[in-house]
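Aggregate trends can hide what the representation actually does to any particular protein. The sequence in question and its structure tokens are set out directly beneath this paragraph.
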Amino acid sequence: MKTEIDILSDREVEIWDYAESQNGTMDFVTEKLAEEGIFDQYRNIHKSYLELYFRIDDEGAKLEILKRLIFLNWYAQVEPSCYTGIEDLDNATVSESYSILNQYLIDGKIDAEFKWMLSFYSSWDYTILPFSENKLEALTAFVKGVDTSILSCPKNQLPKGVMDNRGQMGIYWISMSVEKKIM
């Protein structure tokens, strides 16, 4: 039986597949996706992750949900929406997820995987600092403390399949070759 997080992941992949299948200029595809409500659907997925975070008690699942929220916050700003189906995420959801992340940093609750992911996203500090500066001290310090001259994601080091079934976050990290290649 699929969990709620699996269902949200499947919905993410469906939207990504649909966006990827579109033809035309970036402007044309963006307009088409907007008219078809694709961006609204993704905004709802993003909000649903946050709602699920607050409904469950499993700390491992909460951490996974937070990883996906932070990825989507970042990805919505760095990748054109015509390729992802993600546009104009709800600012309250983005802010709340960064606030949760700030507390995780204070409490030392992020794992090694989340640390390298967040270090990678911090190379685009403009995606995080507007939400954290003068509000979320631990997150701001983390972002500003990252050495952006060093590639923070593991290349061909993670076990094959570790990024499977993790929504667009998993698709992205597979495309960045973080998993070992099978010879």
